[in-house]
Amino acid sequence: MFTTLLYVQVRVDRMSVRNVSKGIAAEREAQPPFSHKRSLVGDFTAAQKLLKALVKEVQQGLVLSVAIVIHPMERIEGGLSQIEERALHELAIGAGASRVAVWVGDALTDEAVAGKLKGS
User: Is pLDDT larger for residue 110 or for residue 64?
Assistant: First the structure.
């Protein structure tokens, strides 16, 4: 099957996307900003626009489905609220993902990304 595995790291007003299948990466600062002083995603529309653009940039060839591991890298003290987790999940769905896993923890290797998507 032609599933593209993407690993998305979200920082304050910045995202990076790595196509694990192809080894292609893209990173960009948000214009306009999407973060809020109390949360990583304060402007959902701006964040989704940036993520869609980055996903499009790293996709190559025939893509039948996209699976995304989305990883908040900042403003996660005490864990994510249900609302924050849902917002990250919905960002990935809006960017074209058919499967999504939200990950909080250490940065993942390419091999670990696939493991996080099992069961999602």
Answer: 110
